[in-house]
Q: What sequence folds into this?
């Protein structure tokens, strides 16, 4: 199904979040978060450290359990699911790109094995086919196929991050969670990665929730933006609107703090 | 061979009765859920970890005075460990011992399954170093437990994939992972993959004990056990392409013995009882001569 | 096609003690299909502000902006994204691109986003780039290293890749030589001819008189003038 068809005709959100809250004792992790995400949309979540964006992401991705609220994916109640179902979702329909690629890869397994793991986890049992798909995906993330049997420990940071992306996308997920995917990469490497992500989002019609503190990344990648402060969403809207015409005091501060190059 | 001299100093088979009950409960649980690793409270044994404490505890819990015990290590009855453990039970349980597989009621083994087919009523106890088949790929116990609970075994095939990518074939030659009754992936202990087919459909009860890791698991008789593989790289129970030089057996697992410093070598059955039995029946290998008996 | 009614805008600068700056009040404007309306008024009078509100880049303080049936001032972000994809085009003053993307792909992107097959999208992009005198050897390079004028022309090519029914153009002929200015004006006239409603800012009087059917002075919407 082409991207146009996906965006144009679907009226049901792929992800629907209502009243989501998570507390750590008396401290607010995130509070009363509401949003809808449609197929093919990229939602950026920005805020400084401690804003609650990482807590929100981990609640959405099922790494933590929120205290209140609802999360519906494709009409299914995520919080009511069994752990087995949620984990299965995490291996097929969902993807999670960690900030540090080492957290999202098996460093002791070859690049091909890393990419093939999700396939094997859902029952692929033909070595030749698995290897073929792994080769294909390495190509798509611009890793030369002669590295397929090398371990990620021998890769550069940018390469590891691209491998993590390939590993996550091989089963054709529809929703991708990204936690600071360009953090720790140098600028030119970031540019390459962002370009790659944009292309994949468009070609595969992915929905993405991306958490970052880097406004340049969201401007490039996100259609919509949520600004968080102190655990709450203080502003949300079109990315370019929030960045060019911020309404909330904190958003204005955030935008004006960006260094101009 | 019985040794009653210090029998009064020990409870039957060394362990106290409560411990034996605890281990038996674990064994019954293991038999009820084939391939599932049951935690148990492993006791301090008079031998260090890594020397078969798990197997010894399982054997101790199973033994009754009427048992006839066989102990093998890498197929041989006469290596140090096999001898020590046999003596241990001889002393603490006073049970009869034997080297003949078909005469034994309980066989404790390290890293081999006897060639002679087992029959109903026999118990085979395996010594297991690392019970968790996923351990080397996933070091976190919390994760591996989840994987077993939720049947998430993709990682197991990753291991095999890595083998093929690195060596052109599945190079795992022992400790080859198996799927039990289509539910649990199990580590069969470091037996050669040649022995894997014997795990499946065996008339004997097979018990696995890991003392240091504190796990017991089991295969009740006639359990279906399948070795993992890929559709285009099927499992091969391979062995050295030789016959036994002593008894001529074509289908038994062989030990390679270096005979001199010019590269001379011979291949002999790893299962000493099996080999001796064949020779008794008149089978002869390439290098068999009556004078060489005992020299191998 | 474009209908602005009673539009107002103010900025609240929280970091300057919450100073409220009203910049527009009671703006009215319509652009019919096939029409080109030019916004005039001195610098700072609100021309770009008005454009940005129509684009959805700025929020409004009151009033409505109808592009066809959709009121941009009240629309959900989703709907504005869809609007920008197939109905409303924007040729801004500055080119903002993702680094590393070749010029041809930059220009083809609006068509690719609509699901146009890649070869067709790229052919149209090539066509436009040629008209705008961007040499073919530059098509595989990212425009981030181009001169200001070249970047502007790439920007324009991208803006005209898809036949938008409504188009916003902000200083499209700035920093262009006479020949290229002519090409841009032709593109605008062609868009008009096919029925597009165009709202534009042209500092160049000559350009304005060539393409605009009428002008609207935004000074009339400045709060000081109203008071």
A:
């Amino acid at each position: 199904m082409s991207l146009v068809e996906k965006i144009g005709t679907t009226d049901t959100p792929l992800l629907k979040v209502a009243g989501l809250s998570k507390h750590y004792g008396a401290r607010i992790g995130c509070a009363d978060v509401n949003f809808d995400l449609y197929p093919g949309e990229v939602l950026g979540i920005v805020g400084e450290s401690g804003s609650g964006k990482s807590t929100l992401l981990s609640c959405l991705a099922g790494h933590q359990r929120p205290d209140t609220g609802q999360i519906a994916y494709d009409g299914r109640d995520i919080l009511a699911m069994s752990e087995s179902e949620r984990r299965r979702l995490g291996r097929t329909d969902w993807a999670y790109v960690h900030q540090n690629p080492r957290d999202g890869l098996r460093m002791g397994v070859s690049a091909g094995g890393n990419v093939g793991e999700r396939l094997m986890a859902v029952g692929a049992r033909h070595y030749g086919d698995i290897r073929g798909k792994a080769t294909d995906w390495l190509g798509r993330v611009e890793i030369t196929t002669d590295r397929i049997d090398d371990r990620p420990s021998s890769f550069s940071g940018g390469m590891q991050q691209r491998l993590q992306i390939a590993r996550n996308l091989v089963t054709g997920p529809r929703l991708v969670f990204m936690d600071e995917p360009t953090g720790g990469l140098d600028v030119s490497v970031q540019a390459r990665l962002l370009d790659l992500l944009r292309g994949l989002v468009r070609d595969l019609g992915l929905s993405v929730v991306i958490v970052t503190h880097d406004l340049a990344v969201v401007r490039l990648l996100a259609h919509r933006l949520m600004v968080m402060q102190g655990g709450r969403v203080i502003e949300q809207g079109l990315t370019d609107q929030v960045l060019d015409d911020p309404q909330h005091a904190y958003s204005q501060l955030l935008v004006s703090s960006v260094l101009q190059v | 061979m019985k040794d009653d001299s210090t029998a009064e100093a020990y409870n039957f088979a060394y362990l106290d009765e409560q411990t034996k009950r605890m281990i038996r409960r674990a064994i019954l649980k293991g038999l009820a859920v084939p391939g599932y690793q049951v935690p148990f409270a492993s006791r301090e044994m008079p031998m260090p970890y890594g020397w078969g404490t798990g197997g010894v505890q399982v054997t101790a819990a199973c033994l009754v005075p009427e048992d006839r015990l066989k102990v093998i290590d890498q197929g041989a009855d006469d290596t140090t460990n096999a001898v020590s453990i046999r003596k241990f039970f001889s002393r603490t349980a006073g049970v009869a011992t034997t080297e003949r597989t078909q005469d034994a009621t309980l066989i404790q083994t390290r890293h081999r399954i006897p060639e002679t087919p087992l029959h109903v009523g026999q118990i085979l106890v395996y010594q297991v170093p690392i019970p968790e088949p996923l351990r080397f790929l996933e070091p976190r116990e919390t994760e591996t437990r989840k994987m077993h609970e939720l049947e998430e075994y993709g990682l197991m095939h990753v291991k095999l994939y890595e083998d093929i990518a690195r060596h052109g074939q599945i190079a795992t030659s022992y400790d080859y992972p198996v799927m039990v009754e289509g539910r649990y992936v199990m580590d069969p202990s470091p037996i050669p993959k040649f022995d894997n087919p014997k795990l499946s459909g065996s008339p004997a009860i097979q018990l696995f004990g890991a003392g240091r890791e504190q796990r017991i698991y089991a295969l009740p008789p006639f359990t279906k056990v399948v070795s993992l593989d890929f559709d285009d790289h099927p499992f091969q129970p391979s062995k050295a392409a030789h016959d036994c030089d002593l008894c001529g057996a074509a289908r038994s697992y062989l030990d390679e013995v270096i005979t001199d410093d010019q590269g001379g070598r011979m291949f002999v059955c790893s299962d000493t009882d099996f080999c001796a039995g064949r020779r008794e029946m008149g089978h002869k290998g390439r290098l068999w001569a009556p004078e060489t008996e005992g020299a191998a | 096609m474009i209908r602005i009614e009673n539009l107002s805008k103010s900025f609240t600068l929280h970091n300057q003690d919450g100073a409220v700056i009203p910049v527009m009040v009671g703006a009215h404007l319509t652009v019919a299909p096939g029409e080109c309306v030019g916004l005039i008024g001195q610098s700072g009078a609100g021309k770009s502000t008005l454009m940005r509100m129509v684009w959805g880049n700025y929020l409004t303080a009151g009033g409505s902006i109808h592009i066809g049936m959709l009121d941009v001032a009240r629309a959900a972000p989703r709907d504005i994204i869809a609007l920008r994809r197939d109905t409303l085009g924007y040729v801004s003053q500055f080119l903002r691109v993702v680094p590393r993307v070749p010029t041809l792909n930059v220009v083809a992107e609006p068509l690719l986003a609509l699901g146009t097959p890649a070869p067709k999208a790229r052919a149209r992009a090539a066509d436009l780039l040629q008209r705008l005198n961007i040499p073919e050897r530059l098509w595989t390079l990212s425009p981030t290293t181009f001169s200001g004028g070249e970047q502007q022309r790439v920007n324009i090519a991208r803006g005209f890749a898809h036949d938008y029914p409504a188009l916003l153009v902000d200083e499209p002929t700035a920093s262009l030589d006479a020949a290229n200015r002519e090409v841009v004006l032709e593109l605008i006239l062609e868009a008009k001819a096919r029925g597009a409603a165009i709202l534009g800012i042209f500092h160049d009087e000559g350009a304005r008189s060539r393409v605009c059917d009428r002008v609207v002075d935004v000074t009339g919407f400045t709060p000081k003038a109203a008071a």
